[in-house]
Design brief:
Length: 332
């Protein structure tokens, strides 16, 4: 298939496969690893508007409100409740250096919904549109505003109507692109992502920018979904955790080249080591050791002895212990 360069607002991103915002994962180190493996655009982990506004200028601010010089363009995803707080938080994220603001109206986590955030807005189209309108009006024209949606709050006809109200009014208010996950909020991550719905939405909105999301764990699946639906690009979420090689594999297939082989053990070791080094440089040795255990769980899935490797990564509490795992399981 012919690769069309992805452009969102005034940002020309090129390769139409981006790294999605991932709570607890898409920090600076993961974003940098994704870019080294072919992602031209990444999103930071979702930020609560309250956190953005209340955090000071100390260590927490450096850790979370941080757009590295070498990773531009980079986007910030926001989640919250009140329009005025969305506005203030979005402006602060732009001042911090983020190039795009993405509104999260999709998160299905129970405590998020209970606090009137995330996927809660899929059932409140008027409130969602107000947030879009207020944030778009407050941002510089040079900063694209996008949003993350699910196919509805549930499978009812009323929910679908609400979805299309948010979608179409959002575009009219100045949304530059939408990322659509093909499950309802009620579904969370159960069942399959409905790419038929994604295709129907793309046909309805024409040349406006739509990125698809959901169950994208292989390059073959990505090529198939993009070909079948006509979406302008895709956002890799869970499929990119511990598998940054997926970006390069997708690029090869979309360019008509053979699928690259899975990364050899020495390639895995190099990337895992680099990821640890980036994390340690950012968080410091104690925090990095704790942060990297969750990534080790995902990296281990590519290893032939994944269950044993997983257990060793989880048990690692220091850099030296991490090094021993790499020497034991990823020797050349």
């Amino acid at each position: 298939m012919k690769i069309e360069s992805l452009k969102i607002g005034n940002l020309t991103l090129g390769f139409p496969v981006i790294q999605a915002a991932l709570s607890g994962y898409s920090d600076v180190s993961m974003r940098q690893i994704a870019r080294k493996h072919g992602a031209n655009f990444t999103l930071c982990e979702v930020m609560l508007d309250q956190f953005v506004l209340n955090v000071g200028k100390g260590k927490k601010s450096r850790l979370y409100l941080n757009a590295q010089e070498e990773e531009h363009p980079v986007g910030a995803q926001l989640m919250g409740t009140e329009p005025e707080m969305f506005v203030s938080a979005a402006k602060k994220m732009v001042e911090t250096g983020f190039d795009l603001i993405d509104l999260n109206f999709a998160c299905p986590v129970k405590k998020v919904l209970g606090r009137g955030r995330g996927g809660f807005f899929m059932s409140k189209p008027a409130e969602a549109v107000e947030i879009i309108d207020r944030v778009r009006s407050a941002l510089p024209d040079s900063v694209p505003l996008t949003m993350k949606l699910r196919k509805g709050f549930d499978d009812s006809a009323e929910s679908e109507d609400a979805f299309f109200e948010i979608l179409e009014k959002g575009f009219r208010k100045g949304i530059a692109a939408v990322t659509l996950h093909g499950r309802t909020v009620r579904q969370k991550y159960l069942g399959e992502s409905d790419w038929n719905f994604v295709s129907r939405v793309k046909k309805r909105i024409g040349n406006r920018i739509l990125l698809g999301s959901g169950d994208l764990f292989s390059a073959e699946t990505v090529r198939q979904r993009m070909t079948e639906t006509g979406v302008d690009g895709v956002a890799l979420a869970r499929g990119a955790i511990g598998n940054p090689w997926l970006f390069g594999q997708i690029r090869a297939l979309l360019e008509g080249k053979p699928l690259p082989p899975p990364p050899a053990l020495h390639e895995q070791r190099e990337t895992i080591q680099l990821h640890y080094d980036l994390s340690e440089a950012f968080y410091g040795p104690v925090r990095a050791a704790a942060e990297m255990r969750k990534f080790g769980v995902y990296y281990s899935r590519l290893h032939p002895d994944h269950e044993l490797v997983r257990a060793d990564f989880v048990a690692s509490k220091t850099r030296s212990q991490w090094q021993l795992v790499l020497e034991k399981w990823y020797h050349v």
